[in-house]
Predict the 3D structure of the following.
Amino acid sequence: MPPHDTPQAKKGTASASYYNAFTLCYYDFHVLGHNMTYIWRCPTRQHQLPLFQAHFWQQPKHDDGQGEKIPMERKGRIWEQLDIGAGTGYFVAEALQHCLHNMDSEAVPRNPMRITLMDINMSSLSKARKRVEGILNRTDRKDLVGVATMHHDVLDLNMPRDKGLRGYDVVTMFNLLHCLRTITPQDKKKAFQFAARALKDDGALVGCTILPGREYQGTGLAGVRARYTLWLYNRVYKVFGNEGDTQEEFEKGLKAHFQEVKVSVVGSMMLFVARRPKRLGMRT
């Protein structure tokens, strides 16, 4: 995921411009391939992608297990998916391609879907949208899927009402939190509040982030590689901002805004699913 700074952090740093049209060309291979496998010990295709796919464009379920009936409240309703930190569009593109490939064999037809790609980096938004639209242009089912973009800061809670306040079935934020260069780690909890505001009452937030603690870095050479990479990305390239991140603080933040929270750790990666956003004290 490209770097995502608050306005205060952008000025005078390389983070806002590090991911551009050139660096995004090798992002999938280097970051999602090599780094996730050998540095963070959480291979993308084994852990992150299956989690993303499990919460992408879900089918309407049978109402009583009898036949192929779709509950009336779901019938014809557009599935709304918001992907925050679009990056190269890898996760959306892979999940979409998987759904389209298997659609003919599904007993229950899918409702139409609208995908909204959100990022603060315009290069990412452009690349991600082109990638997703490229897949749709190669299928005869592109009328089922709409693609939109939102240039917005996840730490800015003033989401325009016409952009989907309480309108999304699922919000995803994969490899986003460790790229937020905020003043304090606690500020990152605003991302969970943003997601809760964007979701429908029965919606879910799904995501993952890299944890910096030594207990997650492995032993021997694996630990050395992880610590060096964290130093390099936080202090030199300044594309990470996760030196103070902890699993405990993230879990507290999730539980403050969601009624159901599940967290697991694979290697240095924390994966999470949070359901049923809390509405107490939220503006409507």
